[in-house]
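Reading is simple: each integer encodes one residue's backbone shape. An example follows:

___
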Amino acid sequence: MCSQLSASGSVVVTCESGHRTRTRQCNNPTPSHLGEDCKGFSNESSICSFKSCPVHGGWTKWSSWGACSVSCDVGIQSRDRACANPYPSSDGDFCNGDSRDDRICSVQACADGNWSMWSDWSVCSITCGNGLKSRHRQCDNPKPSLLGSDCAGDPVDVSTCFIKACHDGGWSDWGTWSACSLTCGGGIHSRSRTCSNPVPSERGQYCNGNSMEVKTCNGNICPETLVTQNIIFQARTLNDLTLDTNQTLIFTNVIQNVGQGYNSSTGKFTAPVSGAYIFTFQFCVYSYNHIYYAFVVDNVVHTSGHGYDQNDNPCSTADALMTLNAGQSVWIKATDTSRLLEYSSSVHHDWNIFSGLLVHK
């Protein structure tokens, strides 16, 4: 390095080779008015040599990315470079920055999740009636890896459960007797009760017995007494419990048929004589189902109704009182799609029944 400077010189470079200059003046002495100027140059330059300049380091190009550190899920891959383009000299600066570059890499998932076995069912949520129970499973057989899919489906399964009925139905008190249908000669009157003390719980037994009681009344002989013919019938057991609109209900099991007015093939009663008749229809409906019915006289609806109950298999009755001429026919039909129930055991009967009797002629 050019470190020495003369009083009249200047250095142009500080390392490797360069040149330097110096100057002089024609003033020793200054020529007189007629004197000659100094001979030679007022400036002089020469080459100077210094020590080598320092070499600072430079990075090579990055290498290709290396293989991912794992064979599944997420890992690391690297690439490298060297401070060799050029290498730094002993007094040169090393390269700035890092010689290694890392990045996250991902490949296929190591494992998708799979369900464990279901746990046992929990205890039913209630002690009587319909309740709920549940069971559980976990997505740990195996657990999903970092890139794996979670288990498909629900971790909780809920189902209904039933232990026992909370209570069976009980009859209310009998209502008051209705007015007698006749003032003399023997009429009938009735009273009713409901299975509501209590109403049967879900799957509880409906009340045993009839919801209506019928008795004769005013049996005193009327003036100008007319002899009333004994006409009475009762039939049960439907040939079809799932009914279409306008379908006739045919009760095939005839219990009694005094007067031979009822035809078990057609389900129709034909009045043998003219007079006042009363007809009763007992129907049993599945819970949350309906019965739409009508008493029909010669294709004309006389009385219609609708039965429905949220209790367990209730039975109810409907009555129709009418005056018929001899030869007129009466039957029961479904006025809309309906579904009925029939059940019989040694202690309990759910029967659909069609009955009638001549009250007076």
Remarks:
- The chain has a mean pLDDT of 86.
- The longest strand covers residues 275-284.
- DSSP finds no helices and 23 strands in the chain.
- Residues 72 and 110 are 5 Å apart (CA to CA).
